[in-house]
Amino acid sequence: MHCAHRRHARSSRHAQPNAPLAVCRRCGTRLALAGAAATVLLAAGVPASASAGTPQPAAQAGAGAAGGAASVARAGAPAAADRGIAKRIALPKAGAKPAAKAAAKPKAAPKPVVAKPKPIAWDAPIPGAPMSEAYGVTDSGYAAGYHTGTDFAVDVGTPVDAIGAGTVVSAGWQTSYGNAVVLKLSGGDYALYAHLSAFKVSAGEHVSAGQRIALSGNTGNSTGPHLHFEVRTSNVYGADTNPLAFLRAHGVGDF
């Protein structure tokens, strides 16, 4: 039996007995193939029966053809879908070094917190200076008959500090005291600094404890370079009090 299609008729014209059978994809007719035609069709995946007398259903023939086509596709170039995946996935080249990770920036060390020094409430007139004459020493050479202050033996030009916060009452010449500065302290008492060589403040100026107000000297009624320091309850001669006791009462002992 021959298929009505011409190409199948030509292929089966010279078929030999027991030649392999092929199934027409269009009509399902079994064809007896000869020679080279059988070889070509079978290599292309067209199913053939083992002998001329073995029938093969059309469904199995179609499946065989599809399987042959799939075999040819696997043997050849990759399918279109596989080629698309290959394009999207960039595989590393052989021998390529992996990209180095960017080094993390080191975190900046926190800045140390520097505590601001607390302002002092009271200070010595010349911290650490040695005392050369104490308060209250009897001496007929003084108008009051005794020493009304405390003397500190220091060289000319030594810095002199305010013992506490207050206001400058005067900064100038005061007869036997020579160059002198008088402060009115915040508590109402007065501090006098005498025999100075230079002023660092002027009358009416507000000062704080430890602030430089003058330089020591040897002016006025003085027998040598020193600082004469007094504390008074009022700004008059003779209203003096023990200056070192006053300082100790306010927590100062650096003298």
UniProtKB/TrEMBL annotation:
Keywords (A to Z) from UniProt: Hydrolase
EC number: 3.4.24.-
GO MF annotations in UniProt: hydrolase activity
Record bears the keyword Hydrolase: yes
Domain M23ase beta-sheet core, chain residue ranges per copy: 146-235
Top EC class for this record: hydrolase
Name under which the protein is recorded: M23 family metallopeptidase
Species assigned in the record: Streptacidiphilus alkalitolerans
